Hints:
Layout: H1 8-17, H2 26-32, H3 36-53, H4 62-96, E1 99-106, H5 111-117, E2 125-131, E3 134-142, E4 148-156, E5 166-171, E6 178-183, E7 189-195, E8 198-206, E9 209-213, E10 216-218
Parallel strand pairs: 1-9
Antiparallel strand pairs: 1-2, 2-3, 3-4, 4-7, 5-6, 5-8, 8-9, 8-10
Helix pairs in contact: 1-3
Amino acid sequence: MPVRHPNDELLLEYCSRGSAASSGSETEAHLRQGCGRCLRRIEQYREVLRSLEADPLEKAPEEFLQLAMDRIRLLEAERSRSRSRQGIGASVRRAVEAIRLALVVDSLDSPALQGIRAAADPDTRRLLFEAPQASLHLQIRQARGGAYRVTGLFAPASGVVDPGARVTLERAGGQGEEIARKRISEGGDFLFPSIAPGPMQIRIESPGGLFRTDPLQIEGDDDA
């Protein structure tokens, strides 16, 4: 014959009233038979009732607070490492995804244009590089000792030059050897007073992105 166990309501009532008040009940008789299942349930209910009747803690145990603080510091360290990895990844992406500034105007290759725009200063070579995000205007003029003076104006499409923007002259056709570097002014201006002739590219770095021009040749007696 299957054993009939008291349901949870009867067991909870037994715990609440106590064994003396429940003397003679079917629950009491069942428990006296040594039913392990119901005795375990009774002990669980009693533990819950004792917890509910206990006074609330005025202060968390010191061990608990220490564990909590250790866990918080661990989570903060993990977040910091994650932000660092994201920052490195963004820098790598910007380096790989350089925005091309395409050469669209070179007064050296357009004598008619040079005559119209530079009649007052025929010894200055003018170049314009463009991209949807920005444009770059260059002026190149021969300086002393066979060097060249390079001035530029960087104009982002937003109209605002990011603080900390820098311009770098690199040797073209090789490993990107750096020739010179300057900070770009708030107005977008920069100046390289003495640059040796040769093939080069211009790289502009700013929080808004990385820009690189088409290769540019600076040399000869009559091109500046």
